[in-house]
Amino acid sequence: MRGFMYRICLTVINIFFPPLAVAMLCGLDHDCLVNCFLFLLAVIPAHVHGFYISCTYFHRRHKVKKGRWPGGAKSMIRSRNVINGGASNAEVDALWRKENGLERESSGMDSAKQGDSPRQEKHGSNMHRHNSRQQQDMVQRQDGQLGRTGTNHSRRHEAARTRTEERMARHGLGYT
What we know:
Elements (H helix, E strand, L loop, with lengths): L1 H15 L1 H9 L3 H12 L1 H23 L14 H4 L5 H12 L10 H4 L3 H25 L9 H19 L6
Helix pairs in contact: 1-2, 1-4, 2-3, 2-4, 3-4, 6-8
């Protein structure tokens, strides 16, 4: 009920003075300055921008409360509070790993032990995805396949070879 009242309060503030509503969600940063500029130019674009930011924030906040990854960057929004749905960067990284089924490697990737920033931790999870892709490629090669199957390049190459073979058979140029 408290979250609903907060949303109603922000909506009313956004109707009368959108830069204040944006400042409550984002702080006094880039998004607030954009909204102030829009408010000075014309009132309606500031309302649209303010409602866009508040709807994005509450949608992503709902996702975080459900234990889902809130999503990546959004156009026209630079505030980490809004992009993360009110969660910290570490919480969002953990939700992303949980949703994608990736577990943190114990070989030095734990940011709590080493004191790394969330950006470095995120880089470590990207390294893990890269390593798991290499392992999948190795398994496919061991199964007798030469490279990844199903890529656009291999499909195009296969289709071109099939067309060439059909053309050669039609014109009697094949190895028959």
